[in-house]
Each structure stands twice: as structure tokens, then as C-alpha cells.
Amino acid sequence: MSFSPQWEQVYREQSNISIWPWSDLVSYMHRYAKPFSSSTKVLEIGFGAGANIPFFLSIGVDYYGIEGSDSIAARVREQYPELKNRLKTGDFISQKHSDMYDLVIDRSSMTHNDTSAIKLGLKNLCAAMRPGAKYIGVDWFSVEHSGFGLGERIDEYTRANITEGQFAGVGNVHFSSKEHLIELFSEAGMAIVRLEHKQIVSAIPQTMHLFASWNLVAEKV
Ligand SMILES: C[S@@+](CC[C@H](N)C(=O)[O-])C[C@H]1O[C@@H](n2cnc3c(N)ncnc32)[C@H](O)[C@@H]1O
């Protein structure tokens, strides 16, 4: 099982429509992906409502995207007609890519698949990365996240059918530990060279909820 069809429903209901570039992604690009230029070939997996596209256009890289929900992908293609042949509908887990990329960008997309799908997806993406290419992952959920205790167990690290909070209605949610991430990427042929754990706790209003996720940079070895 890979792409969760629930995403189609989420977008039809107009929820989860993020339209501002994610700040962690912008800072990771500037901190770890430089130098980039018009010949830097970038693949964004799970581009969703296209939140990060204005940022990639502003830095002038050679941008491509793949997204599983056809309704949101079609909407983004309409919004960016100049990119319409570069924004594909497809499942990035099983996709065999014919092009080679310098950067793979993943803002909380791979982490919405189960463990075996992630292993296959990372392998297929690694095969489409040039030697030394980087994979920038932002917001891979952590086993410390309060959501890890919710929903139905799909495998050791994956939950589904969560009915409350940010994961309601989105199908598979995968939660990682540091060791698990290192293993996933090394099995796929990449080495994690940067890894940060982010934890956010609301002080006002005070809740017991913990948001915890990983940001990472991995290089093809
Ligand atoms: C949390 S949203 C993030 C959207 C976007 N990356 C952003 O930062 O705003 C996750 C996205 O990944 C897509 N997705 C998850 N698994 C996928 C798969 N196997 N193939 C294609 N798209 C997938 C979903 O449809 C959804 O649009």
C-alpha cells in the first residue's frame, strides 16, 4: 500500500490547502543546497497545493513535481501553466523516474506512506539522483509526536485512520526514530548528513500535545 487515497477526499473538501512556502524548507535550501542555479534539477515529491512552488520559481531552479492527488495536481497545473508539463500526477513510491535530479524535496510527503512503501520509494528516488545529489526532508513525523499513540497500527512505525487532530482523514502516517531514519536512508543508498529534531509544545493555551518531527539532508553515496 502506498499513496493514501484519502488525500483526494482531503483536497476535494478544501482542507490541508497550504499555500505559503514552508519556512524550514526555505532555510534548508539556503543552508544546505547551495550553490543552485538554473541548471539545478529539482524534484518535489507530493507538491500538494503547490505551497513551495513560488519559492522554487523565485530561486530560478529547474523545477519538477509529482503528486498523487489528481484533483490538486490539476489545480496547481492550472495555476502555473508554464509548469504544466513538469507537474505530474503519479505515485512517487512506484514511479521509475527517467530523468536524473540534483535535489529531491520532500516536505512531509514520504512520511504519509507505510514502512515498506517508504523503503521502495526511497530506493526508486535514489536511482534518479545524480552522484552526490541531496534529498531534503522536512517534517518527517517523529515517534515522540503525540499522534504516534493514535489510530490503527499498520506496521511498527505507521498508523492510519486517526480521527483527531492534524492527522484526521489523511490515511497513513509514518513516525520515525533517529535509528529508523538512518536505516531507511542507508538501505536506499543515501547517507544522512544533517538531522534535526523539532519539538513544539503549546504554552498558551497549555496542552499536553507534542508536535515532533525530523528535518534532514541525505546524500547519495
Ligand atoms: C502533508 S501534504 C504536503 C504537501 C506539500 N509537500 C506541502 O509542503 O505543502 C502530503 C502530500 O503528499 C502527497 N502524497 C503522499 N504520498 C504520496 C505518494 N505515494 N505519491 C504521491 N503523492 C503522495 C499527498 O497527496 C499530499 O499532497
How would you portray this structure in words?
- By secondary structure, the chain is of the alpha/beta class.
- The protein has a single domain (6-220), classed as 3-Layer(aba) Sandwich (Rossmann fold).
- It has six helices and ten strands.
- The strands form two sheets. A seven-stranded mixed sheet has the order 3-2-1-4-5-10-9, with helices on both faces. It has a three-stranded antiparallel sheet with strand order 6-7-8, with no helix packed on it.
- Strand 9 and strand 10 (210-220) form a beta hairpin.
- Helix 5 (115-127) packs across helix 6 (178-188).
- The longest helix has 13 residues, at 115-127.
- It is globular.
- The two termini are 28 Å apart.
- The model has no long low-confidence stretch (mean pLDDT 95).
- S-adenosylmethionine (SAM) binds at residues 2-3, 7, 18, 22, 46-48, 51-52, 67-69, 91-93, 107-109, 112-113.
- The site of S-adenosylmethionine has 21 residues, from loops.
Short characterization:
This protein has a single domain (6-220), classed as Rossmann fold (3-Layer(aba) Sandwich). It contains 6 helices and 10 strands; from the N terminus they run ααβαβαββαββββαββ.
Q: What's the overall geometry?
A: globular
Beta fraction of the residues? 25-35%
Rg over CA atoms, rounded to whole Å, is: 16 Å
Give the bound compounds.
Answer: S-adenosylmethionine
Order of helices and strands: HHEHEHEEHEEEEHEE
Relative helix content:
25-40%
What name is given to the CATH topology? Rossmann fold
CATH class: Alpha Beta
Q: Count of helices?
A: 6
Number of strands: 10
Strand order of the largest sheet: 3-2-1-4-5-10-9
- The CATH architecture assignment turns out to be 3-Layer(aba) Sandwich
Any idea what the CATH superfamily is called?
Answer: Vaccinia Virus protein VP39
Biggest sheet features = 7 strands, mixed
Average pLDDT rating:
95
Low-confidence regions: none
